[in-house]
Design a protein that fits this description.
This protein starts with 5 loop residues before the first helix and ends with a helix. Helices cover 84% and strands 0% of the residues. It is mainly α. The protein is built from three helices and no strands. α1 packs antiparallel against α2, α1 packs parallel to α3 and α2 runs antiparallel to α3.
């Protein structure tokens, strides 16, 4: 079996980065739902004692911190995707590329640009 071509490697890198980005979006949505649940429970008086209220406030603060950290990942991740797209676009300008790899690379580049 022949080793993967530079085009195949870079295309796979974009695919991996897009999968990672989707994963972080899913994680962010879950964190936001947990935060909303905690805030609603606290607002409804679910924490009857001062100790429980303190724990609820701590949980809310922790969830907010996790959301901020997750949101901070997106700019760098998007930059990595854009850099990988540029590398693939440069590779696509070469002659003698496998047609199936070219088709796949163009699909992945289109997907990456649509997600921007």
């Amino acid at each position: 079996m022949a080793p993967p071509t530079p085009l195949a490697i870079q295309t796979a890198a974009i695919t991996r980065l897009l999968k990672e980005e989707r994963s972080y979006h899913t994680e962010l949505a879950q964190q936001q739902r947990r935060l909303a649940t905690l805030v609603a429970a606290t607002a409804q008086g679910a924490a009857a004692t001062d100790d429980a209220e303190g724990n609820a406030e701590f949980g809310i603060a922790q969830e907010k911190r996790a959301i901020v950290e997750t949101e901070a990942i997106f700019p760098e991740l998007r930059r990595k995707v854009e850099d990988a797209v540029l590398r693939v676009e440069n590779l696509l300008e070469q002659d003698g590329l496998d047609e199936a790899e070219v088709v796949r690379a163009r699909e992945v580049v289109r997907e990456a640009k649509a997600g921007a």
